[in-house]
């Protein structure tokens, strides 16, 4: 029995065949095609899946590999119940694509194949729970910390999805009122302060000429990105340290909402926080969070970096296949 995981990103995609314990058996990584026609891109994806299935084999001569289920991680909002990719900002050609149904139709030989679709934050919390920093933790929050901010939330071991699949939009929790404009159209959102995109825009405006941040961007203000600030802060640059402290203050306010609502035992932070590391990010963040929640909450909460890192795309789709939502047969 085998499971297929697909991780679709804005720039690359990974197809993985795994065993029932989620261990990857074979994989294929490729740049994500964006030809302008999702049907053509999907056809290439299906070809790759067929090739990987054929190459992997079932282990028994003459017996083809039998797929039990497919899990897909996609970069944006989904209708998980109906297997529809809604409007992923990094995949402009893939709006309102019924990817679940399209894949089922592409593999009629697997009959009533179950296909599960989740956004990348939900897939990440499932993957970190299965094989990373959230092992054994049933009340777990994963915060994506890259261009935007999103949350995957496990409550009592169940993925929190909301009535229509849109729960977990932690990037749009208000941390200032009314606050800065956010790309989502609202104001004061966490993402408008700590998301990589918004932070980059701010840094390009406020970085002083004398700061190492600018030097690390090759002296080009328009090239300044959060990773330059993190590198400069690690090297002790005064502006970078102060700015990073402000970033942590905002993040702590967002975490306060999550603690009050979900009482997670552990919060796992992705990209920017993980790159910044323990002494620059996690240790001071824990102190800040302890100041904005009740002592009994702070005592029992752990805030840790994601463990899967570069392995996440390989694990995310498989984790969805093993634990995500069932796509209803009636919707396909
Ligand atoms: Zn927003």
Structure notes:
With 332 residues, this protein is α/β, with parallel strands linked by helices. It folds into two domains: 2-123 and 311-331, ATPase, nucleotide binding domain (Nucleotidyltransferase, domain 5), CATH 3.30.420.40; 136-307, 2-Layer Sandwich (Nucleotidyltransferase, domain 5). It has helices spanning 38-56, 99-106, 120-131, 191-194, 196-206, 212-216, 226-234, 238-262, 271-292, 295-300, 312-323, and strands spanning 2-8, 12-18, 24-31, 67-74, 78-79, 84-85, 114-119, 140-145, 149-155, 158-159, 266-269, 302-305. Zinc ion (ZN) binds next to loops.
Q: Which secondary structure elements does this structure contain, and how are they paired or packed?
A:
Layout: E1 2-8, E2 12-18, E3 24-31, H1 38-56, E4 67-74, E5 78-79, E6 84-85, H2 99-106, E7 114-119, H3 120-131, E8 140-145, E9 149-155, E10 158-159, H4 191-194, H5 196-206, H6 212-216, H7 226-234, H8 238-262, E11 266-269, H9 271-292, H10 295-300, E12 302-305, H11 312-323
Parallel strand pairs: 1-4, 4-7, 8-11, 11-12
Antiparallel strand pairs: 1-2, 2-3, 5-6, 8-9, 9-10
Helix pairs in contact: 3-11, 7-8, 7-9, 8-9
Bound molecules: zinc ion (ZN).
Zinc ion is lined by residues 172, 182, 184, 186, 189, 191.
Indicate the low-confidence ranges by residue numbers.
325-332
| Estimated radius of gyration | 21 Å
Order of helices and strands: EEEHEEEHEHEEEHHHHHEHHEH
Overall tally of domains:
2
Compute the number of strand runs.
12
Mean pLDDT: 92
CATH domain class name of the largest domain: Alpha Beta
Shape by Cα distribution:
globular
Query: Order of strands in the sheet with the most strands?
Result: 3-2-1-4-7
